[in-house]
Amino acid sequence: MKKIFIISQKLTGGGAERVASNLSYELTQNQYYKVYLVLFDGQNSTYPSGAEIIDMGLGPQSNAIGKISIFFRRVMKLRKLKKQYRPDVSISLLSAPNLINVLSKYGDKVIVSIRNFISRSANSTIEKYFVRYSSKKADITVCLSKLVELDMIDNFGAPEDRIVTIYNTVDADRLMKLSAEPEYRVPKQPYVVTMGRLMRQKGQWHLINAFKRVHEICPELRLVILGEGELEDGLKKLAKDCGIESTVEFMGFVKNPHRIIKGAEAFVFSSLFEGLGNVLLEALACKVPVVSTDCAAGPREILSLCETKADLNKVTNGVEFAEYGILTMPFNVDDEPFFKSQELTKAERYLAEAIIRIYSNKTIAANYRAKSTERIAFFSKEKIIAEWKKVIDCSTEDYLTD
Description:
Layout: E1 2-8, H1 15-27, E2 33-39, E3 52-55, H2 64-85, E4 89-93, H3 95-103, E5 109-114, H4 118-121, H5 125-137, E6 140-143, H6 146-156, E7 163-165, H7 172-178, E8 191-195, H8 204-217, E9 222-226, H9 232-241, E10 248-252, H10 258-262, E11 266-269, H11 278-285, E12 290-293, H12 299-303, H13 309-313, E13 319-321, E14 326-328, H14 346-360, H15 362-376, H16 381-393, H17 396-401
Parallel strand pairs: 1-2, 1-4, 2-3, 4-5, 5-6, 6-7, 8-9, 8-11, 9-10, 11-12, 12-14
Antiparallel strand pairs: 13-14
Helix pairs in contact: 2-3, 3-5, 8-14
């Protein structure tokens, strides 16, 4: 039986944590795997797991000295766990766990997973250095999108013979069942919905500003925002300043958001940058039309057919009706949040136009709803888990020459 460590900071809140949860659950279904989910901080976990959980009990620290200390304690504790359990394969997700996984290597095959567009998301030069180091020292680097893979090769020197893309999986049948549960109130008036942490990367202030224009044309339409985060107070202030406070509903963290998503006229995604954009897959699984900024990376790969490097690097300068959803001009990745109403930018006007079109034109909306089933099959659980098993079971050389 092959022993597998899946290493994550925690089991609550973020997309990477959700992937760790899903991967641990699916791999435990294989009788030849013994899976351990190793968490730096196992408190307040919200995502399920089918694996045995090992809680290192080394939660985050707030001050600089504490952060340095906890980093080295995590390395030493994880190496001790590897000596004790002797995993054959150790899979980590996100920059800090990746580095700790590499530094604690003990006869295991180390797989690091890049979950974001590092050229945009890294907060410092030293973080970029650690990403570069981890990828070079790992046996295999798994990226969650093709554009992220290109970024790692072109800008971080990741070895081309030891890097691969494996998309996130989505269990469409499960999400459709969840979307039928009457757990949460669904707005009575027509609405569009967005979901994500209320933070700079997600660009929700642009969406609220754009919704001023939407409200002028479609006054009956509401905007529902799912998620919580540090920008919540500022975003609420912006909605009030824009005069659409009663039109924008902040619903906070919702344990099962899929009923709300399914009932929407469209799912709207306003991120400045991404790694993939897993919520777009969830929206497609709920058969909801998608409007998304054409940010790097992910939305174009999900909503359009990208067969070449040129396709991946294409960026729309307006509104593009792609094969599986609508892409709009991306926002500037260096934009900082604003919380006072102001004149719409060009990108905001295009986002507003796309929302109005998808809501007003039922033929376009119906077409995208119909195509969602076709597209989501590409990200099926069976297909994606088979790709992970291939990485896990084969030697590095066998995998890359297959």
